[in-house]
């Protein structure tokens, strides 16, 4: 680990320790922490107290490289997704999708004519299939194969800096 990464890690630990100490000394803050339902609410509560604990390991403030860097670019407005076409051919399409605090409306399901392989490059998300009882919790590095016409929906993606996906759409099914 480079010295700069070590210092970044140690600073996050210091911020976490200070936030914990403050929550132990302040009953109202402790109750607010107890009322948090997910990681993002904890990060927001810590931020409201002046602590920055949300950066994930290895995450940088920004990425150099411009359009050819899949992790660069401004986060879209909350509640939206932005799609960038990376490659297109007769039987396939490759897209970069940047979601920010996005969810499909309650009864809206994707029903695509194409098969889709998707990998989550950054962030986390909750995806539900109509034929499964439990939603799937996805984190960076997780991938899924979604057969054509398999109904699915996004129930949640991360707030800023958002969740970044790489999606490959194909008209032909892949052989095992």
Radius of gyration of CA atoms, rounded to a whole number:
19 Å
CATH architecture of the largest domain: Sandwich
Structural class: alpha+beta
Q: What percent of the residues sit in helical stretches (DSSP H or I)?
A: 10-25%
CATH structural fold name of the largest domain: Jelly Rolls
Strand order of the largest sheet: 1-2-8-3-6
How many separate helices?
Answer: 3
Note the run of SSEs as H and E. Answer: HHHEEEEEEEE
Low-confidence stretches: none
Strand content: 25-35%
Main sheet: strands, sense, barrel: 5 strands, antiparallel
The CATH H-level homologous superfamily of the largest domain: Jelly Rolls
- Please, how many domains? 2
Written account of the structure:
The chain is an alpha+beta fold and about 180 residues long. It has two domains: about 5-50; about 65-170, Jelly Rolls. Helices cover about 25% and strands about 30% of the residues. It has three helices and eight strands, in the order H-H-H-E-E-E-E-E-E-E-E. The chain has a five-stranded antiparallel beta sheet with strand order 1-2-8-3-6, with no helix packed on it. It has a three-stranded antiparallel beta sheet with strand order 5-4-7, with no helix packed on it. Helix 1 packs across helix 2. The termini are far apart. The model has no long low-confidence stretch (mean pLDDT about 85).
């Amino acid at each position: 680990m480079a010295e700069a990464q070590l210092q970044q890690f140690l600073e996050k630990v210091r911020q976490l320790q200070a936030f914990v100490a403050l929550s132990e000394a302040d009953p109202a803050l402790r109750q607010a922490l107890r009322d948090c339902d997910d990681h993002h609410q904890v990060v927001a509560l810590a931020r409201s107290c002046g602590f920055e604990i949300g950066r994930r390991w290895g995450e940088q403030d920004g990425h150099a490289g411009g359009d050819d860097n899949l992790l660069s670019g401004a986060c879209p407005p909350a509640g939206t997704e932005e799609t960038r076409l990376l490659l297109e051919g007769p039987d396939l399409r490759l897209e970069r999708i940047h979601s920010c605090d996005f969810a499909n409306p309650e009864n809206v399901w994707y029903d695509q004519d194409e098969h889709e392989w998707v990998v989550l490059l950054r962030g986390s998300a909750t995806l539900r299939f109509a034929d499964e009882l439990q939603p799937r919790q996805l984190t960076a590095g997780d991938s899924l194969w979604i057969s054509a016409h398999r109904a699915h929906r996004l129930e949640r993606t991360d707030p800023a800096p958002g969740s970044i996906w790489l999606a490959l759409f194909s008209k032909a099914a892949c052989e095992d």
